[in-house]
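Async update (no meeting this week)

Hi team, since we skipped the sync, here's where things stand on the single-chain job. The sequence we agreed to prioritize is pasted below, unchanged from the tracker. I ran it this morning and attached the output directly underneath so nobody has to dig for it. Comments welcome in thread, and please keep replies under the output.
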Amino acid sequence: MPFNRIVRTIPVEAFYAAFFGVVLCGIADSVGCSSGPTTPSTPAPITVYEAGTAGVSLPTVIREVRPNYTPDAIANRIQGHVLLTAVVLANGTVGEVTVTRSLDTTFGLDAEAVRAAKQWLFNAGTKDGVAVAVRVTIEMTFSLIT
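Output:
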């Protein structure tokens, strides 16, 4: 008789939630705690300072990643600038990036500019000597002339 197996996959997060929920409930019961698991709290929002604000120093670039040209943009000879607003976090990495002046949404250059900006690394900006998140403007240039 052939052996038929039914395999059901569940997301890893669901497995861990179920597993650790059982383990934690078992631990809670063994120490006399009657409350069930709680939902994780959301992280507190960070304060983002604007570049040029009194007492806030600008982040300085350590590593700059240039955006890639997409084949379709090259074929269509798209050139120009994408203006981005980015939040440089206190650890020097780039957080949220938004396009403030678009060059191209059809052939992917705006997306390539955002992807490249997220890979930049900075010495963090500071306020009163403490590293803080600072909003900066980044201009990415796409040029077919080398």
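Quick observations from my side:
The chain has two domains: 8-41, 48-142.
Strands lie at 48-50, 60-63, 80-88, 94-101, 121-123, 125-127, 130-142.
Reply here if anything looks off.
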